[in-house]
Design brief:
Layout (H helix, E strand, L loop, with lengths): L16 E5 L6 E8 L3 E10 L5 E9 L8 E4 L14 E2 L1 E6 L4 E9 L14 E12 L5 E13 L2 E4 L6 E5 L5 E5 L2 E3 L5 E8 L6 E6 L2 E4 L4 E2 L2 E6 L7 E10 L4 E10 L16 E5 L9 H13 L25 E4 L13 E3 L4 E6 L5 E9 L5 E8 L5 E5 L4 E2 L1 E6 L4 E8 L5 E11 L2 E11 L4 E4 L9 E4 L1 E2 L6 E9 L5 E9 L10 E4 L2 E4 L4 E8 L3 H9 L5 E13 H19 L43 H8 E11 L9 H13 L6 H5 L7 E4 L2 E4 L6 E8 L5 E9 L4 E6 L2 E4 L4 E10 L9 E11 L2 E11 L46 E4 L1 H4 L22
Parallel strand pairs: 2-10, 12-21, 21-53, 25-33, 35-43, 45-52
Antiparallel strand pairs: 1-3, 3-8, 4-7, 4-9, 5-6, 5-8, 9-10, 11-14, 11-22, 13-19, 14-18, 15-17, 15-20, 16-19, 20-21, 23-33, 24-26, 26-31, 27-30, 27-32, 28-29, 28-31, 32-33, 34-37, 36-37, 37-41, 38-40, 38-42, 39-41, 42-43, 44-46, 46-50, 47-49, 47-51, 48-50, 51-52
Helix pairs in contact: 3-4
Length: about 850
């Protein structure tokens, strides 16, 4: 063997990257001082002046407060959408710069709230820093250049004086003009820039404007924008507008409702109220999230001592709260600082004894509502605050303001509503509590939730236009066995569980024993996938009967019921189930176990394949009450269905898969009659209806009621019925639950309620159920009311009857043991991110006090909820 040796020379060049930015500084990018929760962007241009393409990576490194991600990079490609999403913001950005090319990269500084910078926030200003590093990608990454990132945030506080809520302008006829001032003051330490805009835009003949559209406020400065209203023609209806106040750059958005009316000539002039004390609508301060008992108690006592001169009014002082129809006592804890005498009784109730959330994705938010009510004969001064170490809970007043603490006046026999927004900042269990200080007594509402989510996606399963999933079974050429498979992938950040169960579909005589799913129960780690195999082995006589009696090209033989969710929720349900079983073994009749009778938790709580013996350790810190199983189940357990199909081939053999899919698609959509005009003529909400939209059942005398689903459309419509909410103690069934509405015709649906257990009450009560009817691109809601016990056999009860179930706080507890309640599942709502909406109904009788003279006398409102 002969070898040859040669010398190899590699000639390269130094990377020639030219970086330019707006200012003249060489080694730093200074964002200046920003208000809290605002963001500023600075663009950097990278130009490759060399002769070779260069792979580059930009990385932001935080020297402090690393978890907050204050300095981030915006993807230049995705930034073109002008609608920034989570995937478009990151700490790293990789790109290749070709010869002569250039790229603009945006660096953003997001000023965090001062409450998250607790140690440095006492100074009023916090300086944050980081480093932007440009690296050459290779076997060994080489840093080519680095820039120092500097940004500061200062205490931000915005105050507004309100003449009325909503702001009302009145003109006496066409061509007249009325104006109203809205004083705004900057109480913070940072200059503020505010954009003002009225939404929606004006249409002829109405003109409502705000001047100026942009204001700049120095610390301590006050401005008074003018809102002007006029109309060139007579108006019969009031004009509703929303004044949008946006803090720049890219900061929070607030809304104030504005109403314009036209009065008849000669009518009595509308008296405008005088300016009320200033209301702080956006404030972040040092003491906002501190929860020392003595400190909060001192604030509460200070507030109560000035009851004779306070002007704080309850938002809901004019009627009942809409949160719930059940009122419960909440756990009381006597303060060590005094404030009430022994034996004193507080008649205060709440719609919820505890607030429970399922698993919520990090960065997302879920809101729950509740209310407190006073049964006392005198006014009560109430101080409320949130105690939460992870800062994942936000207390929102009924006027839409996000706050950490608040003082209100609770009028006799009246209620006040609140909302609590849960927005997790990290994965894991989150515990918190709402504390009410009334006359020196702490009333506590515990809160339990979990951060993170599981998202299971079935791949290899086609869907039709209605979102239904279909799966074709393929025959083994040498066996009378049909097989198919699909994969499941967990795209979430929590472990996920899946339970697959065969169910009968279509041909009812077909036995589900011949349908095998492997695996049928599985726990999947985050970011992993699993393959599911389905085997169908029918008996010859069943298969022959099935194929001979069907005229369809594609036959539905069965379906797979997929029950999935995150492991954290399943472990929480398991703990509740085991506790109820333990109470049953000891012969204790758990008063809350009846709430979970609707759920069969045993199959869900069994040991699954791939389940870790240690489970989820964080779940052990959540003390979910026994009656919260149904609420957790509805929030964290998903139900899906995959329909299994066989192709009815005339020669007894399966045909090409594409033909099978086409047959299935024609069966579902009917391609021979589908035109673009048909799609344009999809029925609107006015072209179909359900009658009646509300019905009342009186078991055991009236257990079923027919309703009619009709359409005036020119085409037949597929419909599907889903029971969204079952009344406590009853199961609702709808027959039929799917089908077709003929053209300009109707279909009769029968609503039946089945009693599971008899509610032990002698008072007249109502329980609510909800059914949704879906057609293409639309749905309607059927509200069902269960009256028990019935007043008469055939009489429909009055809907204005107020439930009497309630509990009184009759003693003071010296511990923080939480008592579970009979509260039902809350209706969740998702408010717009960082937008605080101030609506007419919520704020019409509410003025929050700032500083100065106070008056507790509240006029009685004639409005009824």
């Amino acid at each position: 063997m002969q070898s040859t040796t040669c010398d190899v020379f590699v000639i390269g060049e130094e990377p020639q990257i030219m970086i330019t930015k707006a200012d003249n500084s060489d080694m730093s990018v200074d964002f200046g001082v920003l208000p809290e929760e605002c963001a500023k962007e600075i663009s950097l241009k990278f130009h490759n002046r060399g002769a070779a393409s260069i792979p580059l990576k930009l990385v932001t490194v935080h020297q402090a407060q690393d978890r907050l991600s204050t300095f981030v990079l915006l993807d230049p490609e995705k930034q073109k959408n002008k609608n920034m999403a989570e995937s478009e913001v990151s700490r790293e950005l990789t790109f290749t710069l070709k010869t002569g090319d250039e790229i603009n990269v945006t660096v953003m500084f997001a000023a965090p709230p001062m409450r998250l910078l607790t140690k440095a926030a006492q100074k009023g200003f916090v300086k944050l820093s980081g480093v932007l590093s440009l690296k050459l990608i290779g076997i060994i990454q080489i840093e080519l250049e680095s820039f120092k990132l500097i940004g500061s945030v200062g205490t931000t506080k915005l105050g507004i004086f309100r003449p009325a809520i909503p702001m009302q302008l009145a003109i006496k006829g066409p061509g007249k003009t009325d104006t109203c001032h809205l004083p705004i003051r900057n109480h913070g330490l940072v200059p503020l820039t505010l954009d003002l805009q009225l939404l929606p835009s004006d249409t002829e003949p109405i003109s409502m404007t705000v001047e100026p559209g942009k204001v700049e406020l120095q610390p301590g400065e006050q401005v008074e924008p003018i809102i002007r209203f006029t109309s060139s023609r007579p108006l019969k209806e009031p004009v509703q507008r929303m004044l949008q106040i946006t803090m720049q750059p890219h900061g929070p958005v607030y809304f104030v409702e504005v109403t314009g009316v036209m009065t008849a000539t000669g009518s009595q002039e509308i008296r405008k109220p005088k300016f009320q004390p200033e209301q702080v609508v956006a404030t972040t301060k040092d003491s906002l999230y501190k929860s020392e008992s003595d400190k909060h108690l001192g604030k509460a006592l200070s507030y109560q001592s000035s009851k004779g001169c306070s002007s704080v009014k309850s938002v809901c002082s004019s009627g009942q709260s809409k949160c719930s129809c059940e009122w419960h006592s909440i756990k009381s804890q006597k303060s060590n600082s005094g404030g009430s005498t022994a034996g004193e009784k507080l008649n205060v109730r709440t719609t919820h004894r505890q607030l429970v959330w399922g698993s919520v994705a990090v960065g997302k938010s879920v809101t729950k509502s509740f209310a407190i009510r006073s049964e006392d004969c005198s006014k009560l001064a109430v101080y409320v605050y949130v105690e939460d170490k992870l800062h994942s809970y936000e207390l929102i007043d009924s006027d839409g303001l996000v706050m950490g603490e608040k003082c209100i006046t609770l009028l006799p026999k009246k209620s006040h509503s609140f909302r609590v927004n849960f927005k997790p900042r990290e994965i894991g269990a989150v515990c918190g509590k709402l504390v009410f200080i009334i006359q020196g007594i702490h009333l506590i509402i515990p809160m339990y939730s979990f951060g993170g989510h599981a998202r299971l996606i079935a791949k290899g399963v086609p869907r039709d236009g209605a979102g239904r999933m279909w799966l074709m079974l393929h025959q083994d050429p040498h066996k009378t066995v049909w097989e198919t498979s699909f994969s499941l992938q967990n795209f979430g950040d929590l472990k996920a569980f899946i339970k697959i169960k065969p169910i009968s579909k279509g041909f009812q005589n077909m036995s589900t024993v011949s349908l095998i799913v492997e695996p049928s129960e599985l726990v999947m780690l985050e970011g992993t996938s699993a393959k599911i195999k389905v085997t169908y082995k029918p008996q010859k006589q069943d298969l022959k009967l099935l194929l001979n009696n069907s005229m369809k090209d594609v036959i539905e033989v069965a379906a797979l019921s997929l029950v999935s969710g995150d492991e954290a929720t399943r472990h929480r349900l398991r703990r509740i189930h085991e506790k109820n079983l333990d109470l049953a073994k000891r012969g204790v009749n758990g008063e809350h176990a009846t709430h979970n009778i609707q759920l069969d938790l045993q199959p869900l709580c069994a040991q699954f394949l791939g389940e870790d013996d240690h489970g989820t350790p964080d779940v052990m810190s959540l003390k979910d009450p026994q009656d919260s199983a149904l609420e957790l189940y509805n929030a964290g357990v998903n139900h899906q269905e995959i329909i299994l199909l066989l192709e009815n081939a005339t020669d007894g053999h399966s045909v090409d898969a594409s033909q099978a899919f086409q047959s299935m698609y024609q069966y579902v959509v009917n391609l021979s009659t589908t035109r673009q005009e048909d799609l344009d003529e999809s029925p609107g909400s006015c072209e179909w209806n359900i009658h009646p939209s509300t019905l009342t059942l009186q078991p055991p005398h009236l257990n079923s009621v027919p309703v009619h689903l009709w359409t005036y459309g020119v085409h037949k419509q597929h419909f599907e019925v889903v029971v969204v909410e079952h009344p406590p103690g009853f199961i609702l069934n709808v027959s039929p639950n799917a089908g077709i509405i003929p053209t300009s015709d109707s279909v009769e649906l029968t609503i039946t309620c089945t009693e599971i257990f008899m509610p032990q009450t002698t008072n007249l009560n109502f329980w609510k159920g909800v059914v949704k009817i879906y057609i293409e691109n639309d749905f309607k809601v059927l509200n069902i009311c269960i009256q028990y016990p019935p007043t008469h056999k055939k009489e429909v009860p009055s809907k204005q009857l107020v439930p009497r179930d309630s509990y009184n706080v009759g003693h003071h507890a010296h511990s923080s043991v939480h008592v579970a309640s009979h509260s039902r599942t809350s209706i969740l709502s998702t408010p717009a991110l960082r937008k605080k909406r101030l609506t007419n109904d919520q704020l019409s009788n509410n003025v929050h006090a700032g500083t100065g003279p106070k008056d507790l006398s509240c006029h009685k409102s004639s409005r009824a909820h």
